[in-house]
Amino acid sequence: MIVTIDGPAGAGKSTVARRLASQLGYVFLDTGAMYRAVTYAALQAKIVMEDAAARLALVRGTSIELKGAVVSVNGEDVSEPIRTAEVTASIHYMADDPAVRELLVLRQREWAVGRNVVTEGRDQGTVVFPDAECKIFLTASAGERARRRQAERESEGETVSIDKIRAAQDLRDERDRSRTVGPLQKAADAIEVVTDGMMIDDVIASLEALVHKK
Ligand code: C5P
After folding, report:
1. Taking a C-beta distance cutoff of 8 angstroms, is the pair 47, 58 a contact?
2. Distances (CA, A) of 167 to 41, 64, 86, 90
3. If you measure from the C-alpha of residue 171 to the centroid of ligand 1, how many angstroms do you get, rounded to a whole number?
4. What angle do CA 132, 138, 142 make, to 5 degrees?
5. Which residue range is the domain that position 41 belongs to?
6. Total domain count for the chain?
7. Ligand 1, pocket-test mutation among 13, 30, 35, most atoms within 8 A of CB
8. Is 127 in the pocket of ligand 1 (CB under 6 A)?
9. pLDDT string in tens for the chain (214-residue length)
10. What ligand 1 atom has the least distance to the C-alpha of 128?
11. Which of 6, 31, 146, 158 has fewest C-beta within 10 Å?
């Protein structure tokens, strides 16, 4: 069975998808980590990010391995460096590129063959797994998502203004929604779950109930 969870940045998709997968005994596919991994590899290789041919060659030559929470690129553990602000700021070069998306979509489908999967991203229910048995669109208001992100950064010892977080989040939302291929969009048959004011355990419990119902 395939469970897709799509939604905007900061909706808590990764945490929820990872825990839901573990509770169901499914494997978790973090597709954002794939876009992060190729962006990180491109920055390391110092390719010209605006060069479409260079981007495609880089992605073709980059092997990505996802095992539990560990993300490896060409055999190197990059789980932490793919989460930096520098990588996040450059992801759009890869995520907006239809040829790159086509390659990564194929890898995502291959990864899921013969497995029970909870997959998380922007286009999982619409493009990658249109026939998935259970589709969820996980979201929260922009203010709530920004507040959660700020609390997370504070727990890591960082002080960042809410306005700065909100501006970066709005920019990512806009880019994710407006790309021509694989935009952030709720699939027609997805169930929307709005998590404002909900505790994470309650979100997971409600999603688990939805999966069992399906
Ligand atoms: O989910 P995460 O924040 O790690 O994703 C990083 C970026 O990768 C997103 O902002 C989005 O632009 C891109 N992405 C995508 N398609 C996916 C998953 C992520 O375009 N399926």
Report:
1. yes
2. 26, 31, 16, 16
3. 13
4. 150
5. 2-213
6. 1
7. 35
8. no
9. 999 999 998 898 999 999 999 999 999 999 999 999 999 999 999 999 999 999 999 999 999 999 988 999 999 999 999 999 899 999 999 999 999 999 999 999 999 999 999 999 999 999 999 999 999 999 999 999 999 999 988 998 989 999 999 999 999 999 999 999 999 999 999 999 999 999 999 999 999 999 999 9
10. 21
11. 158
